[in-house]
Amino acid sequence: MAILNVKPTRMELSNLKRRLATAKRGHKLLKDKQDELMRQFIGLIRKNKSLREEVEKELQDAFKDFLIASAVMSPEMLEEAVSFPKESISVEIEQKNVMSVYVPVMNFKRKLETDAGSIYPYGFVQTSSELDDAISRLYDIMPKLLRLAEVEKSCQLMADEIEKTRRRVNALEHRTIPDLEETIKFIRMKLDENERATITRLMKVKDLINK
Amino acid sequence: MIYMHKIAVIGDKNSVLAFKALGLDVFTVTDDLEARKTVNRLAKNQYGVIFITEQIAQLIPDTISRYDDHVTPAIILIPNNQGSLNIGMNRIDKNVEKAVGSNIL
Q: Rounded to whole angstroms, how far apart are CA atoms A86 and B77?
């Protein structure tokens, strides 16, 4: 470790002592923050992973249904059938502060445009039943998919913050604090040395005068 | 602070058309330039969640990672009708590695 580039004076010594106290306090706080973030992150990422596995599997099934539907129906008819949805989904995003990380809290608002009878925005005459299957399956997946969005985004943001915090903790622990301690020791030694030098000089002078 | 946001789906036509019936805004793109423009436009226009198929996402990794440290929009990868490319899973693993230092799952 390197000794900081400062003059060995009393004033500098007390400054450095103050800085060391702050650094130690900061280190402790950041370490606590890192531990807590990590604890929450581990739980969240597990949920993230299992949710994604489920969603991917179910989405693929739904897409398969839709593929069959699009094979049975003409593309124009298909597009026409789904073009005018009865429902509209919007999302209300609130920001929650978890250990100084702003994570989104999403509340989904589903709004039916007309009667609440069915989720299908088309008549049954020109469309195939495969399309109904695909749509209803997608409709069932939707809540999970939206939940995934919330969890995955939170994980992403928290991972970034954990990385940043870890760097800060390490910088304080392995660089700033040892540097400060070493410099404080150096200044103290230097001041002691000066003091001893003064005493010997005084003794020498006294001897000279007595002679 | 509570804002209302919209939800978008980006992908190839055959995969994402079905989402239209559920009331999401669907944008079909074919190449990377178009995809990039669409993502950036949506991010500016109050879209809170953007679902994008992995097939499109792998063309524009830089644009997607641009929004990683923003609270909105949340860009979420979904498989398309040809199956999953595992990019979404890899992103989770990468997050774990970034946070913990090694993959513990």
A: 25
Among candidate residues A197, A45, A181, A49, the one with its CA nearest the CA of residue B96: A45
Residue pair B46/B3 in contact by the 8 Å Cβ criterion: yes
Distance from CA of B62 to the nearest CA of A (A): 15
Q: B81 and A155 in contact by Cβ < 8 A?
A: no
Four-point Cα dihedral A55, A58, A60, A65, nearest 10:
-150
**Is A160 in Cβ contact with B96 (below 8 Å)?**
no
End-to-end CA gap in chain B: 35
CB contact under 8 A, A59 and B88: no
Count of other CB atoms within 10 angstroms of residue A124: 11
Dihedral-angle region of residue B23 (phi above 0 means left; psi in -120 to 50 means alpha; beta otherwise): left
- Fill in the amino acid letter for A168: R
Average pLDDT of the residues in A49-70: 86
Q: What ipTM score was computed for the predicted complex, to two decimals?
A: 0.86
The pLDDT tens digits of the residues spanning B4-59 come to 788 888 888 877 887 887 778 888 888 888 888 988 898 888 888 888 888 888 88
CA–CA separation, B92 vs B90, rounded Å? 5
How far is the C-alpha of A130 from the C-alpha of A67, rounded, in Å?
A: 9
Chains A & B: contacts with CB separation below 8 Å: 156
Q: Does A64 touch chain B (CB under 8 A)?
A: yes
**Coil, strand or helix: which one is A146?**
helix
- pLDDT digits over A2-52, tens only? 788 888 899 999 999 999 999 999 999 999 999 999 999 999 999 999 999
